[in-house]
Amino acid sequence: MKHWDITKRVLFLALMPAAGIALLLAVYFVSSEIRSLDRSLRERGLAIARQLAPASEFGVFSGNREILQNLADSAMHEADVAAVTITNIDGAVLAASGKSMGPPVFTDHIAGLYIAMTEQDDALNFSAPVFQSQTEVDDFVQGRSDRSGASLKGKILGRVNLELSRVGTRDHKKSMILNGLLISLLGLLASALLAMRMSRDVTIPVRRLAEAVDQLGRGCLEVRVSENSGGELRTLECGVNSMAAALQLAQERMQERIDEATERLTYQASHDALTGLVNRREFERRLEKALATSHAEGRVHALCYLDLDQFKIVNDTCGHVAGDELLRQLTVLLQSKVRDSDTLARLGGDEFGVLLDNCPLQQAEIVADLLRQTVKDFHFAWNGKPFAIGVSIGLVPIDQETGSLDTVLGCADAACYAAKDKGRNRVHLYCAEDGDLVQRQGEMNWVARITRAVEENRFRLYYQTIMPLQQDIHEGRHFEILLRLIDDDGQIVPPMAFIPAAERYNLMPSIDRWVVSSAFGLYWKIFPECDKAQEDPYPTCTVNLSGPSLCDEYFLEFLKRQFILYKVPHKHICFEITETAAISNLTKAMDFISEMRSCGCRFSLDDFGSGLSSFTYLKNMQLDYLKIDGSFVRDMVDDPMDEAMVSSINQVGHVIGLKTIAESVENDAVLAKLREMGVDFAQGYGVEHPKPLEDLIALQGRLSV
Questions:
Q1: β-bridge partners, 95
Q2: pLDDT digits (tens, 9 = 90+) for 302-344
Q3: Is residue 204 a part of any domain in this protein?
Q4: Greatest CA span in the chain, whole angstroms?
Q5: DSSP assigned state of 103
Q6: Residue 73's domain spans which residues?
Q7: CATH code of the domain in which 158 resides
């Protein structure tokens, strides 16, 4: 039963009690009726015998057989009477009707009537005595003769024998049993039909509910069931529909959120979060499509690579919030100058790209210059401070002869940097025969060359003396460690040829590690036999560190290990960082300086004054030296403005407690002017040209002899 469906279970539960009750009722009524038939047959036989015995008294007494025969024949007309015989006291048959009867054997006597009765399979036999009597009839008393027939006064004259057939009764019994069974079957059928009708009213709604729940479980939330039942079923139907509606609404809302999130993620994957422009990835995808149309259909497009001028000044002096706002405002301006079919993208930092679709070179030059002029005319102000912004643009035509995506981007990048090299705020058209661009593209290969140089140990260390200018300075000798690279052909490559590429492609941390490790390893080779009579015989060595190294969380631990490994005295090492690196990474720079100064190291700030420098942060940085940018020092004798800048920086440095170092000192006139101003140190070609560090080792060897 546990595997039956609900219809079978309802039918079983409805039919089993009905079948049992119908069967019990049929058995009860049939058995009662059968008993009633047997009783009726006996009573009828007794009644006939009671009537026939008194009526036969005269015939038996008188021996009138004719009367007795008539009585016997008339008795045969009664239902179920099979035979009648009337005998005298001696047993002689006086009259007989029906089938012949043998001498009856009676086993039962009816009390009070002296009527004997016996039962056989097919018959009931009755024997009633015929009395000789006088009958006193009381006409006023009714019912007495009914009960006993007559007063028994006299002797027995004979007997009346009566046989009743039980065949009819048996047939009647069979008929009753069949009718009972038929009625029971009809009742069961009616019950089954009623149960089926009732089960349909119950099981069909339940089945619909089960199917609906199953479909809901499968995710078909549009399913609904009809609410035409009553009672608890209607409550269930309403509940399932409400649940389905709620689930469908929740799914629709969830799907809307998923669609929105997907759309947002898709948008974010292809757009810049700050400006809303397409990002580099999407820009390159569209550029590849443009290249395909140029190669296949001969269409002409143009690519503009934009790099903002002086953007770093805004970031360094006003913070990234101001820089972000500048980029957003410029985005609105630039978008208004290009067509809807063109693509303006932010490629990273302050770099933008413009893909001019189906645009001849002549028209592209006009658009590029319009973009340049738009940026030039834009005046950005932050907290009341105005800033003039420019843009350098590299323009590359795209036609059937144009190479791959990387080639086009490389050409555009090279053209953009060529524009910067030629004075900025200009458009430079890429030309394959342009020598400057060929050189710039060669510089882009510095990544592989620098990596190979590190692996092949082709970097060399140089040194340059930092000379004290004032007589009261007793710090001993002071050198700055400089870096050079030996090219594949053995030529010396100056740092400004590869340092910009190394900074751009994040190679400076590796280079800085090589410089520190090499310089520390040579320290004791350079100064093995110092004059121990001097109070502090060891010189101070200045080592340059880049901004990325200050931000490298592992560089500080590397540096500490190098001090332990080479046992270099901390107080004779001065680390030099540029003003730009310090401001761009001010928090990390201050933490780095504080950590290393606690060990005894000194720090120098390089190129101070090259940007719109802020003297405020100098008070919070733990520095020892302030290097005045060479652009002011070089022409300070002839340029009063440069002289004023050098004097101001020197005075501020001294007020803060820093010693000042002037860079790019190229002649004695500048040296004299610096001494007059009170600048503490000088460095440049006018003091000493950079020399290989091996020369210093050899010099120390000669001095020690």
A1: 86
A2: 999 999 988 888 887 788 899 999 999 999 999 999 999 999 9
A3: no
A4: 196
A5: P
A6: 6-135+147-171
A7: 3.30.450.20
Same domain, 562 and 690: yes
Q: Which two tokens stand for residue 426?
A: 């200009």
Collapsing DSSP to helix, strand or coil, 82 comes out as strand
Q: Considering the domain boundaries, does residue 189 fall inside one?
A: no
CB-count burial class (<10 Å; 0-12, 13-18, 19+) for 397? buried
312's tokens:
């770093």
- Burial tier of 610 (Cβ tally within 10 Å: 0-12, 13-18, 19+): middle
CA distance 509 to 495: 15
State the amino acid at position 124 in one-letter form.
Answer: L
| Angle, CA of 186, 192 and 198, to the nearest 5° | 140
Q: Please give the tally of structural domains in the chain.
A: 4
Taking the alpha carbons of 219, 221, 222, 223 in that order, is the dihedral positive or negative?
Answer: positive
Going by C-alpha positions, the residue among 503, 478, 471 that lies closest to residue 661 is: 478
Instruction: Say whether both 22 and 116 belong to one domain.
Output: yes
Residues 508-528 pLDDT 10s:
888 999 999 999 988 877 765
Pull the structure tokens for residue 200.
């349909």
| Separation between Cα atoms, residue 517 and residue 164, nearest integer Å | 141
Question: Roughly what angle, to the nearest 10 degrees, separates helices 65-75 and 6-55?
Answer: 170
Question: Hey, what are 529's tokens?
Answer: 């036999």
Asked whether 580 and 285 are in contact (CB, 8 A), the reply is no
From residue 574, give the alpha-carbon distance in Å to each of 324, 413, 597, 619: 35, 37, 10, 19
Give DSSP secondary structure letters for 538-575. SPEEEEE--HHHHH-TTHHHHHHHHHHHHT--GGGEEE
CB-count exposure of residue 198 (10 Å: 0-12, 13-18, 19+) = middle
The angle formed by the CA atoms of residues 167, 168 and 171, to the nearest 5 degrees, is 85
**415 and 290 part of one domain:** yes
Share of the chain above pLDDT 70, in %: 83
- The type of residue at 626 is L
Among the listed residues 593, 584, 574, 577, the one whose alpha carbon sits nearest the alpha carbon of residue 614: 584
